[in-house]
Amino acid sequence: MLTLPAIKNLVAFFAVVSIAVIGLYIAYATPIFLRRTNPTFEPGPWNLGRWSAPIGWIAVIWVAIIVILFMLPQYSPGNTWATFNYAPVAVVAVLLLATTTWFAGGKDRFMVGKPTAPALAEVRDPTA
């Protein structure tokens, strides 16, 4: 449904592509950002060692730059309704909706009944 206007309108097509790319980048960068800002995180057996922190921050900064670039208008002048990039409006709307649903009850139901650390320790490595 979201892509139907893109059939006849090139600006709508660019907005749909921008929204898709921005959404994917934000989805990839969010866990990296949360990992970098959580001092109690314990890395698993596979990690980048001392390179983990700088590469993580480079990834977060890169995603911030890419998100800004994909929100810029594709046409000049970009301040007309015919050439306006609607990706920022859609991204802000999704972020507001996601934040509202998280605080309205998502945080109380997310990961309910997750396994505890002793239960996870019982899981065997299939390659061993």
Question: How would you concisely characterize the structure shown here?
Answer:
Helices cover 59% and strands 0% of the residues. The chain is mainly alpha-helical and 128 residues long. The longest helix has 27 residues, at 10-36.
Write the layout of secondary structure elements.
Layout: H1 10-36, H2 52-71, H3 87-109, H4 117-121
Describe the protein in words.
- The structure is a single chain.
- By secondary structure, the protein is mainly alpha-helical.
- Helices cover 59% and strands 0% of the residues.
- It contains four helices and no strands.
- Helix 1 packs antiparallel against helix 2.
Pick out its properties.
128 residues; 0% strand; 59% helix; 4 helices
Low-confidence stretches: none
Q: Strand tally, please?
A: 0
Task: Give the distance, in angstroms, between the N- and C-terminal Cα atoms.
Answer: 48 Å
Strand content: under 5%
Q: What count of structural domains? A: 1
Shape: extended
Structural class comes to mainly alpha
